[in-house]
Amino acid sequence: MRIGQGFDVHQFEQGRPLIIGGVDIPHSMGLAGHSDADVLLHAISDALLGAVGEGDIGKHFPDTDPKYKDADSKKLLQHCYGLVKAKGFTLGNLDATIICQKPKMAPYISTMNATIACLLESEVVNINIKATTTEALGFVGREEGIAAQAVVLLKKDDN
């Protein structure tokens, strides 16, 4: 078994869509980033890469490479999971937290769980996404951005 942990943060920016967990969320601002800035999928990708000793998403998808401009983070996550499988592991479970003051994430959590389960070739029961606020403290509390953290447990593939 292997454990990986990931964290990401992006600031809000006008004129961009807000995509979290592969789900489009209606909001007045999106997140700034070289890719689509899906803070949750980036944290999960980092957790997967860390669990198999493959560095982080900056190593695999550098923001200096124009081919990743506005990249779909779902595809980046699938690439990372491909590296996990190539090393002989599969997902045991994923636990992740979105840290954001607004918008409220609760209406979108079940769709995120299903989307991520599909991307990671897993059952939804193995995916747990939750959200919290910072009680109006810090940059998240001031609604300047969103953070996410993720932990994955990988198991050796028996096949």
From TrEMBL:
Its EC number is: 4.6.1.12
Q: Which UniProt keywords apply?
A: Isoprene biosynthesis, Lyase, Metal-binding
Give the protein's recorded name.
2-C-methyl-D-erythritol 2,4-cyclodiphosphate synthase
What family does the Swiss-Prot or TrEMBL record give for this protein? Belongs to the IspF family.
Q: List the pathway annotation.
A: Isoprenoid biosynthesis; isopentenyl diphosphate biosynthesis via DXP pathway; isopentenyl diphosphate from 1-deoxy-D-xylulose 5-phosphate: step 4/6
Species source reads Aureibacillus halotolerans
UniProt-annotated binding residues for a divalent metal cation: D8, H10, H42
Q: Which domain of life is it from?
A: Bacteria
> Does this UniProt record's set of keywords contain Lyase?
yes
Q: Does the keyword Metal-binding apply?
A: yes
> Which cofactors, if any, are listed as required?
a divalent metal cation
The job of this chain, per UniProt, is described as: Involved in the biosynthesis of isopentenyl diphosphate (IPP) and dimethylallyl diphosphate (DMAPP), two major building blocks of isoprenoid compounds. Catalyzes the conversion of 4-diphosphocytidyl-2-C-methyl-D-erythritol 2-phosphate (CDP-ME2P) to 2-C-methyl-D-erythritol 2,4-cyclodiphosphate (ME-CPP) with a corresponding release of cytidine 5-monophosphate (CMP).
* Stored InterPro entries: MECDP_synthase (IPR003526), MECDP_synthase_CS (IPR020555), MECDP_synthase_sf (IPR036571)
How the cofactor binds, per note?
Answer: Binds 1 divalent metal cation per subunit.
